[in-house]
Write a structure and sequence with these properties.
Largest sheet: 6 strands, antiparallel
Number of helices: 3
Mean pLDDT: 83
Radius of gyration: 29 Å
Shape: elongated
Helix content: 10-25%
Order of helices and strands: HEEHHEEEEEEEEEEEEEE
C-alpha cells in the first residue's frame, strides 16, 4: 500500500499540471489570437478617402446619372465572435441590401442582434456619404480590450453589388493601442449580383456566390469596368486612416488635406496614378459592294468602330476604314 500511495503522489501532480495547462489554454482566444491588455478604452478618428478618379480608373468612369460617388460608411467595433463580411464567405441579407442598394436598416438590425445575443459588438459608427469619387468623410469610434476589432463597409456608387471595406482589423497590439493605421482599399464583389459594369441592371446571382476581390484581370471579361489587362494589379480605389485620439474628440483637428473649392473633393493629384486605357474596337464589318466602271479595277471597303476611346497614353485606335481592289459587281 505504501508503494501505491507513493506512486499516486506524482500522478496527482501530473494531472494537476495537465488541468492547469488546459485551463490556461481555454482562457485564450481561438485561432491563435493575442490577448489585448491595453487600457480599458481608446478613441479613434477614422477618415475614408476616395481615390476613384477618372485618371486612375478611366474605363466606363461614371460621369452622370449618377456620377461616381460613395455611400455612407457603416462600421462596428467588435470581438472575434462577430464578422460583418469576410472574403470567400457569403454575405448576410443585411450586407447584401447595403452593397446592392445602400440600404442600411437590415444590416443595422443584424449588428444590433449580434451585440445583444453574443455581446460581440461594442459600438456602431457611421460617416456621411461622399458625393464624388475622390472625396473624403470621417467619424469617431471607441474600442476596448474585448472589442478591439474594427470592420466597415462603403458601397461603390453606381455598381451592381461592389464595395470597399475592412474586415476585423485589430487596433490593439498586446498591451498597447496602435497610434495610427492606414490601409489601401480595393473593390470587392458581394456575390449577390452578376452585373459586369457600373451601370449594369439588376441581375441576381443564383445561387449566391461568396465575396471576392475584383482585380485588373478578374472577372476576366473585357466588359468588366475594372478590367485592365495591361496592369498587374489595380491602383487602390480608396484609403482609410485610423488615428488614436489623445485628447477630447471635440478638440481633435484632423490633418489638413489639399481640398479644392468643391467641398470635400480631393485634388486629382492625390487620387492615384494615371492608368493607361487602350483603345477597344469592333471586328471588321463585311466587305461592301465593289464599285467602279466595267472593265476596270474597282474598290470595295469595310469599316469598324471604336468601343472605348484610349486614355492616359493607352494604345491609340487603328484605322477604322479599309479599302481593297476588286472586280466591279453588276456593272453595265
Amino acid at each position: 500500500m505504501e508503494n501505491l500511495s507513493t506512486m499516486a503522489a506524482p500522478g496527482s501532480a501530473l494531472w494537476a499540471l495537465v488541468l492547469a495547462t488546459l485551463g490556461s489554454t481555454a482562457g485564450q482566444p481561438l485561432g491563435g489570437e493575442s490577448v489585448c491588455t491595453a487600457r480599458p478604452l481608446a478613441k479613434y478618428s477614422i477618415t475614408f478617402s476616395g481615390k476613384w478618379s477618372q485618371t486612375a480608373f478611366p474605363k466606363q468612369y461614371p460621369l452622370f446619372r449618377p456620377p461616381a460617388q460613395w455611400s455612407s460608411l457603416l462600421g462596428a467595433a467588435h470581438s472575434s465572435d462577430y464578422s460583418m463580411w469576410r472574403k470567400n464567405e457569403y454575405v448576410s441579407n443585411g450586407l447584401r441590401d447595403f452593397a446592392e442598394r445602400g440600404e442600411a436598416w437590415a444590416l443595422m438590425k443584424e449588428i444590433e442582434a449580434a451585440g445583444e445575443k453574443l455581446q460581440s459588438v461594442h459600438t456602431v459608427f457611421s460617416a456621411p456619404a461622399v458625393p464624388t469619387g475622390t472625396g473624403q468623410t470621417s467619424a469617431e469610434l471607441e474600442v476596448e480590450p474585448r472589442h478591439s476589432l474594427v470592420s466597415f463597409i462603403v458601397r461603390i456608387v453606381p455598381s451592381p453589388d461592389w464595395f470597399v471595406g475592412v474586415d476585423s482589423i485589430d487596433l490593439c497590439e498586446g498591451g498597447r493601442w496602435k497610434e495610427q493605421v492606414a490601409l489601401d482599399l480595393y473593390p470587392h464583389d458581394a456575390g449577390t449580383d452578376s452585373g459586369f459594369t457600373f451601370s449594369s441592371p439588376n441581375f441576381a446571382t443564383i445561387p449566391q456566390d461568396t465575396v471576392t476581390e475584383i482585380t485588373s484581370s478578374s472577372p476576366s471579361h473585357p466588359a468588366n469596368s475594372f478590367y485592365y489587362p495591361r496592369l498587374k494589379s489595380l491602383p487602390p480605389i480608396a484609403r482609410v486612416t485610423l488615428v488614436r485620439l489623445r485628447q477630447s474628440p471635440r478638440a481633435f483637428v484632423p490633418p489638413a488635406l489639399d481640398l479644392t473649392s468643391r467641398g470635400n473633393e480631393i485634388a486629382d493629384s492625390l487620387s492615384g496614378p494615371e492608368t493607361p486605357l487602350d483603345c477597344e474596337f469592333s471586328l471588321w464589318s463585311s466587305w461592301g459592294l465593289c464599285r467602279g466602271p466595267c472593265g476596270k479595277v474597282g474598290t470595295k471597303s469595310r469599316t469598324r468602330y471604336v468601343r472605348v476611346q484610349p486614355a492616359n497614353n493607352g494604345t491609340p485606335c487603328p484605322e477604322l476604314e479599309e479599302e481593297a481592289e476588286c472586280a466591279p459587281d453588276n456593272c453595265v
